[in-house]
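User: tokens in, sequence out, please.
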């Protein structure tokens, strides 16, 4: 049976363990559905980026954790301890980071449509950087920074216009896309010119994001080349030299054994070599490099545990195995047909000879977790584990059908502790007047 990651194992009872803790024990202790996060794995992932980015790109280059992938207070404490910065994309993510005591000067405030209130909230909170998506937000940001008597540090988001060949819905670097200002059409140059003219904005550099779940550096290198050419043009036209290049999201993770195994340090090294060579060639001073990994920090540190409700064979078609969660805690199959590995957490040594579809409990035929799954034939009350659910599961969860969001439990050093409590029915009606 494919375990995908080195923090997963099988114990003498034939149960799946995560970070050395028995998954069936966790399901019994905390109930299901349950998100389990391996804190040690998260720290290990953070260090892959912090250490290698500083070594390869130079002092001051570092990763910012992309909170959109997973956002709750306890996680920000881990991210802070690991010396990372963080990007927030909404006032809610900003609030969560601040509530966790995350230093505001280490926050980068993203968003392609920051409202006036968002902008004021960000400035009032003292966020380190705004990542301005387009010229619409420059006037108000400049005016409000002036009112507060500060010069707000800003990165400008531009679109390099490349296709990173990832899923269409998460392919964000193309010209025709709602994020950033495209280089190709000349809009990015006008955006930079306008930004540089704002007296209360301290323009530090550029940001791009080419997509998510990317496994090699080739699209990053292409985007860097385009950005560097752009930066050179701006330097010669406007005399502005960028101190920072923010290359956006991190690398992909394995959801199934068919996904490639990626060597993050080797990729960072190769990307740094490419960048250094390109900068030397055109005599552009090497900028500080930021990246914004989310998925590759928390994705493989998480799994979800479910209890089986039963097996329903539809004769002549297939067998559905129902679980006590679904698209409410993991909408990624319904949205993207995303791959996942499903394991029988309590029967890891049994022969897997039963092919089935894992269905959730929502009133929609699209509420599936995965199709064509092979398991030992499940029975009511068995525990199933879905791997690699640390990123974009809890953060994309919903209360559809008025289902409660699951709890998150963290494991570390063989111990476990609750990190987010399970929602209650009272939570569900808490905002109803
Ligand atoms: N920075 C920016 C500006 C982004 O838009 C994203 C992801 C990231 C960083 C983090 O990228 P990562 O390292 O996680 O690949 N809901 C989709 C993913 C959407 C990602 C959008 N942006 C999914 O479940 O696959």
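Assistant: Sequence out:
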């Amino acid at each position: 049976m494919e375990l995908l990651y080195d923090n997963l194992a099988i114990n003498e009872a034939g149960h799946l363990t995560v970070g050395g803790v028995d998954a069936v024990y966790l399901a019994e202790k905390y109930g299901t559905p349950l998100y389990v996060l391996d804190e040690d794995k998260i720290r290990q992932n953070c260090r892959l980026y912090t250490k290698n980015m500083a070594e390869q790109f130079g002092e001051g280059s570092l990763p910012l954790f992309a909170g959109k992938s997973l956002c709750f207070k306890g996680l920000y404490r881990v991210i802070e301890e690991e010396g990372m910065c963080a990007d927030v994309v909404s006032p809610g993510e900003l609030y969560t980071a601040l509530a966790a005591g995350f230093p505001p000067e280490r926050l980068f405030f993203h968003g392609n449509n920051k409202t006036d209130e968002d902008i004021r909230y960000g400035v009032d909170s003292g966020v380190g950087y705004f990542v301005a998506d387009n010229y619409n937000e420059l006037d108000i940001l400049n005016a409000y920074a002036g009112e507060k008597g500060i010069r707000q540090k800003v990165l400008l988001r531009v679109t390099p216009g490349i296709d990173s060949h990832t899923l269409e819905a998460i392919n964000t670097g193309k010209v025709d896309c709602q994020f950033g200002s495209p280089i190709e059409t000349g809009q990015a140059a006008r955006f930079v010119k306008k930004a540089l003219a704002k007296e209360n904005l301290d323009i530090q550099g550029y940001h791009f994001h080419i997509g998510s779940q990317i496994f090699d550096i080739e699209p990053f290198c292409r985007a860097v080349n385009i950005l560097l050419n752009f930066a050179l043009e701006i330097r010669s036209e406007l005399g502005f030299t960028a101190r920072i290049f923010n290359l956006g999201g991190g690398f992909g993770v394995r959801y199934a054994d068919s996904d490639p195994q990626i060597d993050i340090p080797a990729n960072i090294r190769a990307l740094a070599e490419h960048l250094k060579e390109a900068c030397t060639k055109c005599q552009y001073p090497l900028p500080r490099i930021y990246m914004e990994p989310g998925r590759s920090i928390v994705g493989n540190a998480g799994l979800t545990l479910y209890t089986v409700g039963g097996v329903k064979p539809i004769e002549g078609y297939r067998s559905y195995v129902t679980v006590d969660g679904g698209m409410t805690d993991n909408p990624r199959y319904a949205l993207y047909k995303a791959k996942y590995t499903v394991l029988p957490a309590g029967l890891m040594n049994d022969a897997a000879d039963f092919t089935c579809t894992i269905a959730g409990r929502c009133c929609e035929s699209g509420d599936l977790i995965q199709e064509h799954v092979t398991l030992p034939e499940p029975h009511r009350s068995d525990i199933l584990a879905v791997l690699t659910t640390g990123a974009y599961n809890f953060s994309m969860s919903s209360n559809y059908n008025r289902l409660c969001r699951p709890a998150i439990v963290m494991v570390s050093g063989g111990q476990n502790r609750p990190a987010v409590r399970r929602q209650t029915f009272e939570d569900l009606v808490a905002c109803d007047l």
